[in-house]
């Protein structure tokens, strides 16, 4: 265990993780802000979000290869400065091409911070607990900003969105700096390392769990329209669902202390499968509301357990470094791999593949008590 790890490490790491992933967490507000800034439809600017998310993936790959060299280290403070600077510059940018370049750079800088944060959480004594708390913090962070941003933008203008993100990013410089274990050190050498098949299974499991949930998430409005649910009602359903997301992350933190983490992960996957079937087959508004809430609960229950599983499967950190790329790619592809008329069948098959990928890794699971 890294000497930098402590009882409160997850808190500072969670803050970095939340702020670095702000664009993804606040995607609707981000797209609305830039549509006003450039006086263009949200649909015509959605590619900007994709560019930024693929910047996350590029950073993940960069970190993976840089970990092979003793002499090259990622400077977290430099990445934070770049992130804050690109947010600030974006507020003043009126040229769409320059803005695209700024957001691509911002994506890479944010991705580097994300990977370092993931490494910090994975090196905790109980990574499930650390990831569960971090995701719970993300839900609180995004929920608070969703409430505040409309009023701030109304009173101070659309530039406030990027000024706020720049300020929050700059504040990260005040937090303790995480120093990952040297992959060439004797301490790491004696830890469990994963073979190629384990690494591929870990990355496939993370990719598939995000692909499945991203695809299902993108279809919620379609299901709502089929049931003739008004947009305002749909918004209320998603708002309540966010609370269930928080509850799911808290449940994952509690499950991390259990001796039945393996069984709970499998039960969670099967339960999510039943929820998805209910979501796409119900014709009742109340059951739809229940299904969406449970869907968001199990999503945020399963993700920390998956991240904890791959952390314990590979102490060298290779899977964790590449997991950002796997998650980002899964999130980007999810909405595009679903075929009309086959959505439910595809999602169930995706969950089955997810179970096949994660099942061999569950043998590495340990029940660890919180410190």
Key descriptive features of the protein:
disordered N terminus, disordered C terminus, 16 helices, single chain, globular, mainly alpha, 371 residues
What does this structure look like?
By secondary structure, the protein is mainly α. The chain has 16 helices and no strands. Helix 4 packs antiparallel against helix 15, helix 10 runs antiparallel to helix 16 and helix 13 runs antiparallel to helix 16. The longest helix is centred in the middle third of the chain and has 30 residues. The N terminus and C terminus are likely disordered.
Per DSSP, the total helix count is 16
Radius of gyration, whole Å: 20 Å
Strand residue content? under 5%
Instruction: Supply the helix-strand structural class.
Output: mainly alpha
Assign an overall shape: globular
Proportion in helices: over 70%
Taking pLDDT < 50 over at least 5 consecutive residues as the criterion, the unreliable ranges are 1-5, 367-371
Major sheet description = none
The counted number of beta strands is 0
Head-to-tail CA distance between termini: 13 Å
Mean pLDDT rating = 85
What is the string of helix and strand elements? HHHHHHHHHHHHHHHH
Per-chain topology:
Elements: H1 9-20, H2 22-25, H3 27-37, H4 42-66, H5 76-92, H6 96-122, H7 127-156, H8 160-171, H9 186-189, H10 196-218, H11 220-226, H12 231-255, H13 261-281, H14 285-313, H15 318-333, H16 343-358
Helix pairs in contact: 1-6, 1-7, 3-4, 4-6, 4-15, 5-6, 5-8, 6-15, 7-12, 7-14, 10-14, 10-15, 10-16, 12-14, 13-14, 13-16
The gist of it:
This protein is mostly helical and 371 residues long.
